[in-house]
């Protein structure tokens, strides 16, 4: 499973970073970006929750 953050849509609320800190982190523009190529199995539930909880639907699944 892979995810990506749409930088134009992210408002930097930090929710995904709190929810899945092994997957998301702050970048220099105070927005979230994905720090892994493939989401580790153990982090998939948190990553999915982040996709569903993002207030601006900025996190998308990648093929
Ligand atoms: S939850 Fe969405 S809006 Fe908030 S920091 Fe993560 S990607 Fe950005």
Radius of gyration: 10 Å
Tally the structural domains: 1
Q: Which strand order do you get reading across the main beta sheet?
A: 1-4
Q: Indicate the CATH class.
A: Alpha Beta
User: Helix-strand pattern, N to C?
Assistant: EHEEHE
Describe the protein in words:
It is a single chain. With 63 residues, the chain is of the alpha+beta class. It has one domain: 2-Layer Sandwich (Alpha-Beta Plaits), CATH 3.30.70. Helices cover 24% and strands 22% of the residues. It is built from two helices and four strands. It has helices at residues 15-19, 44-53; strands spanning 2-5, 24-26, 32-34, 59-62. The chain has a two-stranded antiparallel ribbon. Strands 2-3 form a two-stranded antiparallel sheet. The longest helix has 10 residues, at 44-53. The site of iron/sulfur cluster has 15 residues, from helix 1.
């Amino acid at each position: 499973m892979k995810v990506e953050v749409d930088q134009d849509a992210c408002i930097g609320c930090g929710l995904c970073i709190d929810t899945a800190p092994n997957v998301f982190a702050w970048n220099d523009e105070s927005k979230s970006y994905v720090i892994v190529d493939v989401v580790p199995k153990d982090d998939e539930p948190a990553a999915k929750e982040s996709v569903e909880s993002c207030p601006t639907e900025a996190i998308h699944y990648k093929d």
